[in-house]
Structure to design on (131 residues):
């Protein structure tokens, strides 16, 4: 029974990492800027295992970024979006994949909420822009 539980945890972690890679791929495809991943796996009581944060230059780009993430995550992993907050006129779009939360901001809102600082005790990785 213990071996089975360990295998299940590993399988879930592998799926979570696949989702993260697909999210980053979707953001890079539409030129998302300042992509950052936040590893919350070592934070007791965290709301998810990972967060991916990025920004776009306009509300239209935010919509394109979220559409791209939705398409690529679905295609590459088969994972379905649990919920999404924000719309085409929002300065912040949040996407919930259960173990992975995605935050897509306009620069002003990202600076205001400063999520990376809120989770500064976690492992934060900055992904270089694809210019």
């Amino acid at each position: 029974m213990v071996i089975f539980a360990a295998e299940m945890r590993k399988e879930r972690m592998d799926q979570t990492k696949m989702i993260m890679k697909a999210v980053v791929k979707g953001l890079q495809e539409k030129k998302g800027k300042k992509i950052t991943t936040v590893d919350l796996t070592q934070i007791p009581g965290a709301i998810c295992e990972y967060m991916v944060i990025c920004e776009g230059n306009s509300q239209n780009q935010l919509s394109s970024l979220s559409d791209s993430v939705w398409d690529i995550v679905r295609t590459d992993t088969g994972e379905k979006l649990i919920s999404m907050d924000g719309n085409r006129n929002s300065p912040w779009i949040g996407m919930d994949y259960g173990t992975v939360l995605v935050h897509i901001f306009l620069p002003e809102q990202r600076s205001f909420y400063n999520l990376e600082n809120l989770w500064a005790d976690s492992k934060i990785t900055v992904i270089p822009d694809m210019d």
Observations:
- The chain is about 45% helix and 25% strand.
- The two ends are 49 Å apart (CA to CA).
